[in-house]
């Protein structure tokens, strides 16, 4: 990597169509999203030389809309991390403060946008990986409702949790990219048409999601969950509360709410995510994809040696997930985590009976210094407290800059009901307008 903040693993161009709503727009693509003819490493030694034969649907839709891909961005290995430091290609630096991490796992994508190296970027968000780096780098990131954006061509980490989402400098630009990538895809059976899912009047507004970025929050009810403020850094809380106060000044009504289940979200998330990962990553066996250790003809040995190409965090998660799914422990861990997931989903559903959106800090902490959390995985996992509940409940959310604390960016997270990205975008555009 040679760009100023080491945001890119591969700088190669894929030209878009001559005309379209995104013509002239440059896009950086997270390196776990397939690009035909351009290597797609997932930030891993395992796939260092892997060149996909096809492009992800999201990438195809962007280039069909006229956007030009400028490169593949650095990321935590297979999306596993919160700092972009678990990448086999080395860390990315945060353009807001190069001694700090850009967040993760889509750190390269957020840094590329923050540094002006791309207008828009694609990330993937399994437990916060679009919103966290957006918050740390001072840009906007959208995690769409599960099923709004095709996962075809996204290298799977935890299928039931993740979505591809756009990162951009403004809410409107992120929404424009979402307009292009959203919508059913025959290649991903979990995609849905929002109008069919929630009714035509709720789904996509006329003029698309970008048209919802009008800053109009008059009459909007904003739920403020106490649990997502508790334990957060005071400087973060102050900045976020000030931004929410400004929404009130613009006619929004705020009301305190409670989401008691979210205290179990990180635990449930890490059991489910590692379980799915242990199954997904079994395909990297040296036979079908990427790196292959020679071995001496004994398949078990060559399989084991091949998998030495995974980094420490990936190995840790494969072990955790395999354990959680094993016969004797399945009910104790995996089944319990699924119960907790259902409780989180129910809590949000109950809350949305009374409020339009829910606002909180995106990350409970300011960006870590480089190296600070690498040896302390638990600390890194706990930083996902506010983002993981949203993935467990499959809801849409955005991280929008709320201001700065000690010169560092602070992100405000806005969560909405299923397929109501329009309201989330509208509220976020009001935060940005202040
Ligand atoms: N930090 C979380 C994890 O490591 C989220 C990652 C993601 O969304 N890909 O699993």
TrEMBL record:
UniProt keywords, alphabetically: ATP-binding, Ligase, Nucleotide-binding, Protein biosynthesis
Active site: 30 (charge relay system), 105 (charge relay system), 129 (acyl-ester intermediate)
Annotated InterPro entries: Amidase, Amidase_CS, Amidase_dom, AS_sf, GatA
GO MF terms, alphabetically ordered: ATP binding; glutaminyl-tRNA synthase (glutamine-hydrolyzing) activity
Cellular component, GO, one term: glutamyl-tRNA(Gln) amidotransferase complex
Enzyme class: ligase
Reaction catalysed by this enzyme: L-glutamyl-tRNA(Gln) + L-glutamine + ATP + H2O = L-glutaminyl-tRNA(Gln) + L-glutamate + ADP + phosphate + H(+)
Gene3D superfamilies: Amidase signature (AS) domain
GO BP of this protein: translation
Segments of this protein annotated with the region Disordered: 76-110
UniProt domain Amidase: residue ranges: 12-424
The enzyme's E.C. designation: 6.3.5.7
Annotated function: Allows the formation of correctly charged Gln-tRNA(Gln) through the transamidation of misacylated Glu-tRNA(Gln) in organisms which lack glutaminyl-tRNA synthetase. The reaction takes place in the presence of glutamine and ATP through an activated gamma-phospho-Glu-tRNA(Gln).
Recorded family membership: Belongs to the amidase family. GatA subfamily.
SUBUNIT field: Heterotrimer of A, B and C subunits.
Official protein name in the record: Glutamyl-tRNA(Gln) amidotransferase subunit A
Species of origin: Halorubrum halodurans
């Amino acid at each position: 990597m040679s760009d100023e903040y080491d945001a890119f693993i591969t700088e190669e161009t894929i030209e878009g169509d001559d005309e379209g709503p995104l013509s002239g727009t440059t896009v950086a693509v997270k390196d776990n999203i397939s690009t035909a003819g351009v290597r797609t490493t997932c930030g891993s030694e395992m796939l260092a030389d892997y060149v996909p034969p096809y492009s992800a649907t999201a990438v195809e839709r962007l280039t069909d809309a006229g956007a030009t891909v400028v490169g593949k961005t650095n990321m935590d290995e297979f999306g596993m991390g919160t700092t972009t430091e678990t990448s086999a290609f080395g860390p990315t630096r945060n353009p807001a403060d190069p001694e700090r991490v850009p967040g993760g796992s889509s750190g390269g994508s957020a840094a590329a946008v923050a540094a002006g190296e791309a207008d828009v970027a694609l990330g993937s968000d399994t437990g916060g990986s679009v919103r966290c780096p957006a918050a740390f780098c001072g840009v906007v990131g959208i995690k769409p409702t599960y099923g709004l954006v095709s996962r075809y061509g996204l290298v799977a980490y935890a299928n039931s949790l993740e979505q591809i989402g756009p990162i951009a400098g403004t809410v409107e630009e992120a929404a424009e990219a979402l307009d292009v990538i959203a919508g059913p895809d025959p290649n991903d059976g979990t995609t849905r048409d929002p109008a069919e899912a929630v009714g035509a009047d709720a789904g996509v507004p006329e003029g698309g999601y970008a048209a919802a970025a009008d800053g109009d929050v008059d009459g909007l009810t904003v739920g403020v969950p106490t649990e997502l403020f508790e334990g957060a850094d005071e400087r973060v809380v102050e900045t976020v509360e000030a931004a929410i106060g400004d929404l009130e000044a613009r006619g929004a009504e705020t009301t305190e709410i409670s989401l008691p289940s979210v205290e179990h979200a990180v635990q449930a998330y890490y059991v489910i995510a590692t379980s799915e990962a242990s199954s997904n990553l079994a395909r990297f066996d040296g036979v079908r994809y990427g790196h292959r250790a020679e071995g001496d003809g004994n398949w078990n040995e060559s399989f084991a040696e091949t998998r030495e190409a995974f980094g420490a965090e990936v190995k840790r998660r494969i072990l955790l997930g395999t354990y959680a799914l094993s016969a004797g422990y399945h009910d104790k861990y995996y089944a319990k985590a699924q119960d907790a997931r259902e409780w989180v989903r129910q809590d949000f559903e109950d809350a949305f009976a009374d409020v339009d959106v829910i606002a909180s800090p995106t990350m409970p902490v300011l960006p870590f210094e480089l190296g600070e959390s690498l040896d302390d995985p638990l600390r890194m996992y706990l930083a996902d407290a506010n983002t993981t509940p949203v993935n467990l409940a499959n809801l849409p959310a955005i991280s929008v800059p709320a201001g700065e604390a000690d010169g560092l960016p602070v992100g405000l997270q806005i969560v909405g009901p299923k397929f109501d990205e329009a309201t989330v975008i509208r509220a976020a555009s009001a935060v940005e307008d202040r």
